[in-house]
Amino acid sequence: MAAYITVGAKTSHGGTVISGSPHTTHNGIPVARKGDKVICKKCKKVTTILSGDASFIVDGAPIARDGDVTSCDAKLIAIQQAFAESDFDVGSIAQAAPLVFAKSEPDALFGNSFVEDDEEPIEDDYVITNLGDDVDKIAADSPTLQENIKDLQEADWNIMYGPDSGGTYTNYEDREIVVSEYYRDKPAMAMHALTHEVGHATYQGEIDISSRDAYIDSKLKGEGGAAIYSVMIREELLDNGAIDIMKPHSDPNELKTLVSAYEKYGDDHSAWSEAGKVYGNRKTSTTGEKYNDFYGNRYDEYENEGNLNELLLNF
């Protein structure tokens, strides 16, 4: 007999259950099931609940219990003490509030968010990207992006629009993410650009200056890491019913390669390397050079000046 899981429950990786049944609640909080989502603090990505009680089906899926596992091998930790078992009987639970099943109202059928009576609406906690309300609204549907931007802002990073001619980039020294002014009236594209740069700021990667080719490969891997981060956020947004921030304006073949790498490896160094191959012949938004040439020329410049070690700075 194990306590069942509700939205807000924790995991052994420090994660939090973020989705649950749209129909069934306990004390007003959605009950989680196999297939529902968890934001993993350790893995820094959204994972999936993989197990549940197959004999206790809630809205088409097994109810999740204390001790069940996620796709990153974390164990679920219940935050309430109502129990689920094969012969579950609501009336037999003396000290736990019963499950509340679907009502006829549309809001009860199609919503799975909740706010306690004494809390402010969750929207008040959403980050302000400084890229406009439309971008903020899209970002609000990605718990991972919310957490990463909050972490960056707490570390004194700033997000802003910059001149179109300057492109979109991450400045590690000044702790700035600059998105081209060109995207100001294009929220989906601005969001895609933002996720790429947050990927750079969050996953800085390792730089190899042992040779020119090694340096280029390591920087392309960094670009791949940022691209995979965008794909991860895109998947999270789509899962939460938000718009597609990549498909409308991305090269279909490139997007297919990136999504395939993410599906095959997850947010992993192997995926970064696979995605990095896409970037070699793409042009940078800052100089218009191909990435291979951009990083190769940078290596040559610093090597000629005898300052290769400065390339170890992430910029």
Automatic annotation (TrEMBL):
What the entry lists under InterPro entries is as follows:
PAAR_motif (IPR008727)
Q: Which domain of life, per UniProt?
A: Bacteria
Name of this protein? Putative Zn-binding protein involved in type VI secretion
User: Which organism's genome codes for this protein?
Assistant: Psychrobacter immobilis
